[in-house]
Amino acid sequence: MIQILEIETMGLKNNFFKSPWLFSNQIKHINDNELNDQKVSLVHIKGTKKIGIYCKKSLISVRFLPDKIFNHIENNTIKKETFIKAISEHLNTLKREKIKFQFPKEEAFRLSHGDNDGLPAIAIDDYQSVLVIQSSSQAGEFLLPFIIDALKLIDNRPLFERSTGQIRKMEDLPERTRWITESSKENNNYEVNCNFAKLKMNFFLNKAQKTGLFLDQRKNLEYLSRIIKDYDIQSCLDICSYAGAWSATAASSGVNDLTLIDQDSWALNLAKNNILANSNNNVTVEMLHGDMFEHMQRLLKLEKKYDLIIADPPAFAKTKKHVPEAKRAYSRMTKLASKLLSDNGILILCSCSRHIPDHDFLESVCVGLNEGNWVFLHKGEQSPCHTHLANPDSSEYLKCYFLINRKL
Ligand SMILES: C[S@@+](CC[C@H](N)C(=O)[O-])C[C@H]1O[C@@H](n2cnc3c(N)ncnc32)[C@H](O)[C@@H]1O
């Protein structure tokens, strides 16, 4: 049996429950002696049908689970097997919903986008041959064993955990990289090959950033592949390339002069292989290992120009207090990248900082753009399998601008 504690809000009206969580100052906290060592528990919000995970130490103190779970509660408890079954049914629902987002059947996609999909702090990416799970907070740590059992009930594919990254560090949680399914443990093969955004992509689970690939860029990569042939693009500069999804998209459309910048040398080599796998081999790939700003400065001094430039950096604003510094960094990135662009070239600028809303990113970009007559070709966002809630919070995190410097 799992105990469910009652929790009261500070008089919140129902409208608040459209958000996937409640903050520390919105609830009356539970006494320590009722909680486990981690100060985490399943809770029911008094007077509502909302069930969530309570983490006393976190600023986000209650993170909601799917409403359907409420129906399985008896006397403030839920049977463990019932809880696991309810999660597996929820995972099946998510799968049915996500595949409606019109990507080809055998492509990688995000099955769970954490709180926005009712599974707090748990991301699950489906790479067809393997499922990769990531827990990013104390609430995720609580939920993880139940999710693993729930997944095992409905899916017999190998399951890998890649719980790494900045957010775990901020929550003081150790990194964890492991095979979860018993049959895979003996097997030291971490290589994954999958289809994604019309590309054949390869990566290694044990070296991966995030769960493996940045699946949130799917729609933006597809947009590039749709328009690229309408422009005269011979050369491409891919800033923060990681596994090379942008360059591989360009190469698959016939661009054969590719330059990549990343501070991760492993990723650069991976990117090169992915480019070769998606092109006709008649390509030159220059790999520039190190800091993006230093490399861009150096390329400017060499008077280099590129017909297509993509800048897809990591989130510059990890928290709200980093926003002013991050905005300056986006302006600087834009300034350098726009100076390196050929006339009538395409400039793609991305921000995955959830603390920088679209208007702030636009402002930073406009400050940075080199002189000229810049127009939007397209404004892209996260692929819809990275669920975007219809409420005014930061669940729309990915901004992806396609610009040209139009010569009139
Ligand atoms: C958001 S990911 C890029 C995703 C990639 N464009 C894709 O679509 O798969 C950011 C990348 O920036 C790299 N990076 C972070 N800081 C950097 C810096 N200062 N200079 C160069 N690369 C950096 C990371 O190693 C990572 O590969």
TrEMBL record:
Q: By what name is this protein known?
A: S-adenosylmethionine-dependent methyltransferase domain-containing protein
From what superkingdom does this record's organism come? Bacteria
The alphabetical list of record keywords is:
Methyltransferase, S-adenosyl-L-methionine, Transferase
Enumerate the spans annotated as S-adenosylmethionine-dependent methyltransferase domain. Answer: 198-362
GO MF terms here are: methyltransferase activity
State the Gene3D superfamilies in the record. RNA methyltransferase domain (HRMD) like, Vaccinia Virus protein VP39
Would you kindly state one Gene Ontology biological process term found in this protein's UniProt entry? methylation
Organism equals Silvanigrella aquatica
Q: Transferase among the record's keywords?
A: yes
Output the lineage of the source organism: Bacteria, Pseudomonadati, Bdellovibrionota, Oligoflexia, Silvanigrellales
